[in-house]
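Methods: example folding runs. The two proteins below were folded one after another, and each record is reproduced exactly as written to the output file, sequence line first and structure-token line second.
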Amino acid sequence: MSRLITTLIVFGSLALLVAPAAAELTVHPRKRTETSPGSGRYHATTSTAAWQAPETAIIVCDMWDSHHCLNAVRRVGELVPRMNQVLETARKQGTLIIHAPSSCMEAYADHPARANAKLAPTAANLPSDIGQWCRHIPAEDAGQYPVDQKDGGEDDEPAEHAAWAALLESKGLNPRAPWKRQVDGLRIDPKFDIISDSGVEIWNTLEQRGIKNVVLLGVHTNMCVLGRPFGLRQMAKNGKNVVLMRDMTDTMYDPSKWPYVSHFSGTDRIVEHIEKFVCPTITSVDILGGKEFRFSRDRRPHLVLLVAEDEYKTEVSLPPYVTRHLERDFRVTTVFGNDVERNDLPGIDAVANADLLLVSVRRRTIPVKQLEYVRKHVAAGKPLLGIRTANHAFAPSKGKQPGEGQDAWNNWDPEVFGGSYRGHHPEGPKPKLAVADQASSHPILAHVDFKDWLGHGSLYQVNPLLPGTVPLISGTIGGQPTETIAWVRIRADGGRSFYTSLGHVDDFQTASFRRLLFNAIYWSAGLPIPEHMADSPEKFVAGK
């Protein structure tokens, strides 16, 4: 980005620095679009956009100096250093910085940046309700709100929360609303920034300065960032090109409440909701480069699911399974196949940041650039799991060749899983499942009940397995050779692979299969396998 030359102009008694029109910001908005109308499944796709810095504003929402939730205070403290870097860099590039610590204007009564907010004349297009909270916009009717926040979302431990409230009260602060000003560490420039918690003042300022692009960051995404008069909903419904900076925010969400996921997965779910129904998101990387910000307690490995097959309904079975059992300990991204063009996986770029990959794909010869994400994941020695059709995920049917610009991985099964898939037995008999020889002590089989366990769907022909594989489960049907149903392999690149030919939609109704897949994911990630799955809210909270 070129060095900016600023021009000093005088507006009334206020000196403003305005960046030249040539100053550009390159951002990468991510949004979610339904795979097809009514599917309930979404593609997360990222684009590239060029914004003029003088036509852009960043609104810092409610980064208060204190809060009734101690964990929220801690997380705000972690956000501050990188957030201030974002503001300093954006300011130098010519972006307007608006500090909006709601209910704290008294602390800034004599601050020049507060005076700056009052200079703009009333805009001709001032929305009639811009001074009010906006709790909902019509687009949100298309989905379910993703977390239960009815009790305020505090995630403190009760004893620590009580001690924190007592400490606030001893300081003469209201334990339910102790904030008085913006948190220290976010510098406010008296010449160039403005301070306001008024939707009217902020709108007027945006219009006076010709601001088209608005970035919201701060806390809390599911409350103030969405709902304030200057928040995402108001900006979106009134025509601003608004985005959330998704790594510079937090939520008020308690993991003991529905959907019983971790606090950080709760934030992810709110971000997904925003990308589906309100506006796109970006990250601080667009301003600063480097890596996205993560909270110190967010140690979740990133699990990416590739789901694109037409037979076994894993697009229906896998997402709820993941929410119920895995979003406690994993950050999860699901990439669905294109409902119109079968050889396309929109959003597969998420694999670039995956720690482990779970594949449920059948015979897709996807674009070369898309398959390259998978090739790089494997080459990097990262874990990979496959269910059912995954052993012929990227191999075309016999006699078919990839189309122009597409790629195939014909040796995917032996190279990645160590298998020799050559078809399946006819539908009908259900395979009887048993522990493979000398596999009973393998951690993936812990707590897996084999009594009367039958597989669903036809028995796959996968033998012989390549050297180095470790069979875990075998399956038999009458009059046919025994086949291996599940196995693991340490690949030549050092990565862990797990494969099972189970994965029929009815397998997900079987506790033994759910446990097997759960164990395999933790094992592949190198995490200790929990004694209990998150089958109920009580077990989930006990294991958090």
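Second run, written to the same file directly after the first:
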Amino acid sequence: MPSSNKHKYWSSLEPLVLSLPDKPGVYQFHDSSGKVIYVGKAKNLKKRVSSYFNRGRHDSNRVNLMVRRIADIRHVIVDTELDALLLENNLIKKYQPRYNVLLKDDKSFPWICIKNEDFPRIFPTRNLVRDGSKYFGPYASVRMMNALLDLIRQLFQYRTCRLQLTPENIRARKFRVCLEYHIGNCKGPCEGHQSGEDYMETIHRIEQILKGNLGMVVNELKRLMKDYAAAFEFEKANAVKEKIGLLEKFQSKSTVVSPSLTNLEVYSVISDAKYAYVNYLRVIHGAIVQSHTLELRKQLDESDTELLEMAVAELRQRFGGEASELILPFRPETSIPGVKYIVPRKGDKKKLLELSERNAKYYRLEKLKRQELVDPGRHGRRLMKQIRDDLRLEQHPEHMECFDVSNTQGNYMVAAMVVFREARPSRKDYRHFNIRTVEGPNDYAAMEEAVFRRYRRLLDQGDQLPQLVVVDGGKGQLSAALKAFEKLGIRGKTAIVGIAKRLEEIYFPGDSIPLYIDKKSETLKVIQHMRDEAHRFGISHHRKRREKGSLQSELSQIRGIGPLSATALLKEFRSVAGIKKASQEDMARIVGPARAKIIRDYFSLPSA
């Protein structure tokens, strides 16, 4: 590509980029202090890194800001794309670069640890120590984890002490058996009563339960029970039978999806402007044995594909995923050797994917609810800051108003205005405007009248103007509202935008090119909420006026009944049907006996 099309920082970094190989690998961007600011993976290192310096390629200001900070580029070549994905994931966790997706760790969640030592201990922990120990979890519920540990304790005998049970110490007879041995919870490896091989066989069975392979353990125990029974050791056979019953009872509490689904992992992703949530389900022998949602904070407008790939690598690494089939909402770019990607369209696997998506959505909703409970105003402040940044406003839009016009071919024209305070509807402040000065279907003139009347009243009363005004419509409606602003002398004193329905573009005064906000942006969702509220509020008032007008027109067709009489009758009897049911005396009390008789004769009603 010609250098004229490259970023202005290309010249100083050109030798580094051109020397990169056309191979898969991982690249690191360093700033002038040598700090890693970004880690990425690529099928082709040279093409991917070069793309950062192409002018006009990036809409994101954060990408352009990152490129300006690059002082050095380093890379690592790997054999496959999967190796690149795993290395990228590990380097991000190691360096925590400023411009990379941030993976929320699970330090706050409990794990079950099988310690890497002679005669391994099994215990709960919240601290992961990379010393070769095996960790299972994390568990979203401490109660669930403790229930699982209680089950294992009832099923198997293993030590709970912290003694250094090395072969040398056991041979030297440094330890004595404790109470756990005497009550049958431990087989006494500290005095050599249990061999290391026998103890590790127990640990292997416990690992299978923690992985969710309950069926394998049940089958092993059934075989053992039969062996005991064949040897006429009926007490031992009965003890094993009780353990099988405990396991089957525990398994029955798992969420069963389909017995035909044996060993699967399910991943789904939902995202908004700043965060993504990836849910993971592990399915073994037709039951969901594990569920976890990973939260990722976006930094450079990463796509759902990129985020899902990163999450799959992280979650499989974290949970020791070994499934040969992955159910996904779409096919990732990076393949995993020996693993089949499935994008289901129907059936049990599609239902599993939908369940995973619901888990991700509920996780996000619960997180927002928790934030609101801790700090009720936090959500509103965050939304206002987001709106201010996205729309480039000078101040937080604590008070916003939105206008919409409704009419039927120019008849019964009304405008509606809704008010949002701290990004929430303030329904007591909603207002209707019956358009007075406009004849025929002229939405622009109706918008101008409604905006003028609203802010003329605020100015007359000395009330504060809103920080943001939104009009439902594109350039035409926005121009009409601006005319009202100019007449009142408030143009420039409060921000005003228009939202067009077709592509949800945001128009600014004096700018013919609209702003396209990310469809997942909370700013757009708030503006759409305002627009929909104004439309709903306006339509309901317009419908009432139209119904009332049609009723009045039906009554006004009766010779001798004028608009005042029609209005008085409708106010009293609510509808034409109510008038027909009313007695002549009741009508006479409202409009007099002569008009009451005229109405009853018109509707061919029997005289009283």
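Comment on the second run: The chain has 20 helices and 20 strands.
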